[in-house]
Amino acid sequence: MIEIQGHRGVLATRHGNTLASFVEALRLGVDAIEVDVWLTSDMQLVLRHDAVIGSSDIRLETMLQAVVEKHPATVTDVDPETRAPSLSETVALLRFANATGIVLDIEVKTDGADWDLYGHRIVTELSKVLKAHQDEQALRVRSFDPQIIRAMSGMLPGVPLVALSRESPVRSVGLYPSAAKELVTAALATGASAVAPAFGTLDAGLVAEAHSAGLKVFPWTLETGDEIRAAVRLGVDGVCVNDVALAREVLAALGEPLAAAHVMALPLLQRSPA
């Protein structure tokens, strides 16, 4: 079964990292929802892709000051939210939707620099939250920063970890390498159980190298049907996509089983039978 990972929910039709986007992902049917997390000045884990919007840095703001990031590629501006949701609110949403089996795939965001106080703080706070929920919610943590994955491996050994990679003109202690052998070696050394290469770096050699080492392969971000089909042909274990409906359509045509939908409804607002 090819895992469908909704990138920030359903980025094709909703603003990413919003509760509305997560509800839409559940409605369509996903195996995992990928989110991005930062730590605010009041030590709250808040979901947003970019740390800085305009002149405001989420790391220097409180949770209530963290605005939603509006994505220009979003085709419908529906269900606007006034602030970015917290990780705890998202866990509560999944519980309410009876979707605790859907993997909440949390990308820990950093600047990719040397290990610092911020890195220590976000790993510490994230570990506290995940320890409280790991027996009731499917969880996974990913990062481009091997320092984060290594630290999470030591603090929360029961949660699967993913080594994210992308092409970079410079090597950094805070970035996984993109070359297949180096990426696999670094992933294993930091305790990861999967690699997530950028689609542009994905090839048969990387998939074979990872699988031979016992690592799963989750490329990101696949935007077209052709990209999804190409990844499936290479034997990947999952696809991180902006358009969940498209991914379901492509995988269904390939004969792949699909995740069930989780349509949310408020029972008290439903009409009783006449």
TrEMBL record:
InterPro entries: GP_PDE_dom (IPR030395). It comes from the Bacteria. Residues 2-251 form the GP-PDE domain. This is GP-PDE domain-containing protein.
